[in-house]
Request: fold
Amino acid sequence: MNVADQTLKKGLSTSEKLKIIIILAVPAVIENFFQTMLGFADTFFVAQIGLDEVSAVGVTNAILAIYFAIFMAIGVGVNVLMANATGAGDYERASKVAQQGVILTTIIGGLTGMLTLIFAEPLLSLLGVEQQVLEIGAVYFRIVAVPSILMAYMFVMSSILRGVGDTKSPMKAVIIANIVNIILDYILIFGFLFIPELGIVGAGLAGVIARLVGTFVLILYIKKNNQIMFQKNWWRFDKVYQKELLGLGAPAAGERLAMRIGQVVYFGFIVALGTSTFAAHQIAGNIETFSYMIAYGFAAAATIIVGKQVGAGNYEEAKSYAKLISILSAVFMVFMGVLLFILGEWIGGFFSEDPVVVSEIGIALKIAALFQPFLAILLILTGAYQGARNTKYPMYLTTIGMWLIRTLFVYLLAIQMELGIAGVWIAIGIDIVIRAVVMWYRMEKDKWIKSEKKMSFKDKVECQCHPKTKQPNMNECVNNY
Reply:
């Protein structure tokens, strides 16, 4: 029995539950850290070449963020359905979900690669870059994103492993990919021995090779996992499974895209405050990203644990774990908030020498520090809702929060009341608090788990029963009904 499956035991004490949560969450936190470092390494090495190259990497990453949202959404669907299935003791169904996820990933990854090959320049030109940056960016974009299927495989294969409660293997794969990327960045960008200096082309190739290695490592871990049983006769496109994956994944993608587009909506107001304020906002956001890693790690644990409990029909236990993980994550984020409050301005000094910009970074991060516990609760409950197969509500709430609440308060506080960057970050905090409170309230009222189809008593009796609890396997029931 793996760690995640231990959550299905009855009568666990709070300390035992906390131990399981931390064992699942810590590898996910480390994985998030190294995922972030992958991008930082490229930016750091490319910065040694020139500003045009840095801009080229930046605009490429802006487009890749959309690709990532799609790949991550497929991963959410795979993770949730596998967690539900394994919670119900149905490992055959979990394995079928995994294989159908790989099939969907191959299709989507292939399509994004073809899109990049044909439309690299038009896509980058949408961001309004100069011609010189566009030419460099198109080369880098094609090298990195034509084989975007590798990015997709890494997202989805990591989700397959998490779906059976394994958070350590994806962490190890990302660490290995990072090491490969950093070594190859240095060798291929600047040249080494008989290898010529390739510049930004070298940066692109290093990333592709690193992802290829990461994918290969993940395949090895999947093969070693005795809970995942791939079979040759399952390598066929299954409409029923694909509909389930897309039904969960599409809203998850919509939620991330709503966030990205929502940022563009209110960015115009921040730009109006001046170049230094906009720069301070961007830098403060990048620094705060490191605090997200903890919450995202615990959110991954929430999705796995809640998914298993819902699959087993333990709805009250799912709710109990969701609340416990939220509180635990909030405690950790209070600590991160203290660090941001005390060290924020000092860290900002590494990014800019302009005293005005550094001062505004400090103001932004002091305000952000106050909202860290609410941010933790929001992210964990988003993961919990996803585990409960409710991916639509977080999407709706994010759209309202980003496009209406956040934009409205940025305009009122930063522009009308002339609070500047303080107004911007207070508005962000208000949005976070409102969404966190709404999601907690709905959970308390038991309106957070996606309702199953109503069945007659005869239908329920005919359903396959859970092998341990002898209760109806709700996943199997819904699929057969």
Summary: The longest helix spans residues 51-87.
